[in-house]
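**Protein of interest**
===
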Amino acid sequence: MALMLGALMIHGIRPGPMLLEGNPQVFWGVVASMYAGNVMLLILNLPLIGLWVRLLSVPYPILFPLILLFCLIGVYSLNNNIWEIIIMVVFGILGYLMRKFKYEPAPFMFALVLSPIMENALRQSLLMSEGSFGIFFSRPISLGFMIAGFILFAMPAMPWSKRRSFGREL
């Protein structure tokens, strides 16, 4: 969903309740493409069920290096640039650390999509306060949101914040 929102925003289409009224061709095009995609998946996957089941039986120590190899080949083959492989490795390490500290990827992607809007709002706020970040801490509502944001961001890394259910760890 975050990628869909990002794609719409890149093309200058504002997602929201007025999308159907403002851009009906985009809305119905998305609906039609989903129907067509489901039909194609049905046609392709029904005969290939046996192949997918056998693919699941491949051991992880064999499957993981193959997936990594295909990712490296794909990244390098696009522009023949070694820096893109380095970027892929860095984001892979970032993804590993996010999984290790139990950060959810969906809110992260949502934040990446909304970051241009938030950046404009930050710029407007700093212009109104003449460059002072104190504007975010001077009002009770914004202070509450800042404190809640810091707590929620830090909670997965804190050992005391692990969930417990009826005295047992999940």
Q: What stands out?
A: The chain has nine helices and two strands. The first strand starts at residue 164 and ends at 165.
